[in-house]
Amino acid sequence: MQIDIRAKGFELSPALREHAERRLGFALSWAVYDVRKVAVRLYDINGPRGGEDKCCRIQIALPGTSDVVIEDTEADLYIAINRAVDRAERSLARRLERQREHRHARQPVVEITDDDSAEEFEQRADAGVFH
User: Fold this and answer.
1) Cβ neighbours of residue 24 under 8 Å, at least 6 residues apart?
2) H helix or E strand, kind and range, residue 69
3) Is the separation of the CB atoms in 69 and 7 below 8 Å?
4) What is the pTM of this model?
5) Which option is the CATH number for 2-127: 3.40.50.12370, 3.90.1150.10, 3.30.160.100, 3.40.50.12160?
6) Which residue, 61, 70, 113, 123, could crosslink 37 as a Cys pair with Cβ 3.0–4.6 Å?
C-alpha cells in the first residue's frame, strides 16, 4: 500500500507525517491487499486567521470501483487526521463488504452428488445446467 501525504498552505513536519502514516498503517493494515494507494492532503483553509480550519482529506484508490474519499475539518490537525482515518476505515470496510457480497451473489451454485462422475459434471457445467 502506497501512502502519499502532502500539505498545502504550511510546511509538513516530520512528526505530523509520522502521525498520519502510523494512524493509516494501523487502521488499514487489514486491507493491504485491496488498497493500492492512499492519498492524504492536509490543508490550512484560513491560514493564520485561526478557527476550525485544518482539513484532512483521505482518498483511497480501489481496483475496479470508485475511490473512497473522506474529509474532516477541525481546529487541531491531529484530531482531523484521527477522525478522517477512523471514518475512512469504516467506509472502506463497508465498500469492500458490499463488493464481496455482490461478487458472491453472481457466482452460480453447482451441486455435486455422489452419483456424478467428473466427466458428467464437466459436461453439465459446460452446458450451463446446474441442479
Assistant:
1) 3, 38, 40, 58, 85
2) strand 68-74
3) no
4) 0.73
5) 3.30.160.100
6) 61
